[in-house]
Amino acid sequence: MAEATGKSPNIDPRSGFCKSNATFYSKRKPVPLPSIQSIDVTTFISSRAHRGKVAFIDAATGRRLTFADLWRAVDSVATSLSEDFHIRKGHVILLLTPNSIYFPIVCLAVMSIGAVITTTNPLNTHREIAKQIADSKPVLAFTTPQLLSKIADSNLPIVLLESNTVATKSKIVTSIEEMMRREPSQIRVKERVNQDDTATLLYSSGTTGASKGVVSSHRNLIAMVQTVVSRFNLDGRNETFICTVPMFHIYGLVAFATGLIASGSTVIILSKFEMDEMLMAIQKFSATYLPLVPPILVALVNNAAIIRKKYDLSSLHSVLSGGAPLSKEVIEGFLEKYPKVTILQGYGLTESTGIGASSDSLEESRRYGTAGMISPSMEAKIVDPESGEALPVHRTGELWLRGPSIMKGYFSNEEATASTLDSEGWLRTGDLCYIDEDGFIFVVDRLKELIKYKGYQVPPAELEALLLTHPEIADAAVIPFPDKEVGQFPMAYVVRKTGSTLSASGVMDFITKQVAPYKRIRRVAFVASIPKNPSGKILRKDLIKLAVSKM
């Protein structure tokens, strides 16, 4: 893989663009990957040297897991899985739970024996979970008593993530605490696991279509771990991260269940997001890093006066935002209210193991609207969706990515895999982007979410960014509304700020003054909140269904 070092006359050292193959190369230092093929991600993480002492803290109970506790628990659960449940390489294990101190233990134990972890959203309906079970075919499930009813008719043997089993439930075979008391076996059945073997089966959010199982290898996860550790320069430094995002999602999995363990950092686990609980945890545990999604960051800005009066956030030095690029107004508003905290941003997909681009300093984040520069060891192309031509700097097209963290494919779905991964390993992200002269990626919009108005293409994200600058609008989403005459026109769902009496005509007039006629918003509905997935992306398909149902 070439690097944008400037040594090749064909690679522009400023943008990373190579004229000879129309490829953008990362300007970051490449991450080292293990040369030995037969290694699993758990062994890779546990073998990394660090000076960290406490791995995880449960924010609600204060329970702590030292790194010694963690690795003993992982070995005990892996032994139990192998010897008591006869779990073998390739078997799929379902994990259905909110954020928990047990989450990383289960994931790491499962992957250490070559089995595959599949996670699901606790908020999913019984039907949605049943569909995932039918697709992924797990042989064992870990869950909590509160969520038991969602998989009760699955006929899966169940391990409870509680201290005691429930005798009346015949499908419950043991508890995680019982497994953790198992004496680790040095002779347990452990098949040779290679980097190319499957480690995780995570289901994509399905914001533009049906949810699909993303198959990621141990190599994908090892590359992700190395990227996370190098990005934050964590070697030799013990930091404390607050876990606000769901661990079942790629964002939570990369940062909290695997990535940060390798650095010796401490992770404070919140079972669910509550603003006051998060702020109290920052204060109580002197957290230094706060990963979040844009809506939380906006809330921190809007409520800064109350927050700073009530909580001591002096330990915090960085917030990490992912899911969508932050606007200039949000970034500068945050820096004004929290001048000692640096904003870092990131871009990634489940299909790229959460890796793709990042801004690694405040200076980079102030390149307003950027998703950052291409991640280490990653390559990118900007491809014209119509012609298939790879484009140079400042030309908009679909972002393609290639690198060691790109998925193996979609589970049991050759058609979807072929339409997303090409024969050379390029991942079609579905995001319309351009890369500027300094190598920064700018996401214009989702390719499939462009509104087609009389043949014109209208990016919803552009209108949403404008709406969020209105002093009376707290949040907004724009969708394509079907129309016989024009095909589609932009419709806005708007969340008014408390006390606002903003009207629909007021919203439309505000946009009309700022955009070309074909981009005007022609319909407005006011809602209490905008539906979003765990990474902060707007669930436009839900809003489209809502709009169409009221036609």
TrEMBL record:
Alphabetical list of Gene3D superfamilies matching this protein: 3.30.300.30, N-terminal domain of ligase-like (3.40.50.12780)
Residue stretches making up the AMP-dependent synthetase/ligase domain: 48-411
Record-stated family: Belongs to the ATP-dependent AMP-binding enzyme family.
Pfam families given in the database record: AMP-binding (PF00501), AMP-binding_C (PF13193)
GO cellular component: peroxisome
Domain AMP-binding enzyme C-terminal positions: 462-537
UniProt-listed GO biological process terms: phenylpropanoid metabolic process
Span of the signal peptide: none
Name of the protein this chain belongs to: 4-coumarate--CoA ligase
InterPro entries in UniProt: AMP-bd_C, AMP-bd_C_sf, AMP-binding_CS, AMP-dep_synth/lig_dom, ANL_N_sf
SUPFAM superfamilies, per database record: Acetyl-CoA synthetase-like
Species for this entry: Buddleja alternifolia
This protein's UniProt keywords: ATP-binding, Ligase, Membrane, Nucleotide-binding, Phenylpropanoid metabolism, Transmembrane, Transmembrane helix
PROSITE patterns for the chain: AMP_BINDING
A GO term, aspect molecular function: (E)-caffeate-CoA ligase activity
UniProt key word Protease: no
Keyword Ligase: yes
Transmembrane annotation, as ranges: 101-123, 248-269, 289-307
Pathway membership: Phytoalexin biosynthesis; 3,4',5-trihydroxystilbene biosynthesis; 3,4',5-trihydroxystilbene from trans-4-coumarate: step 1/2
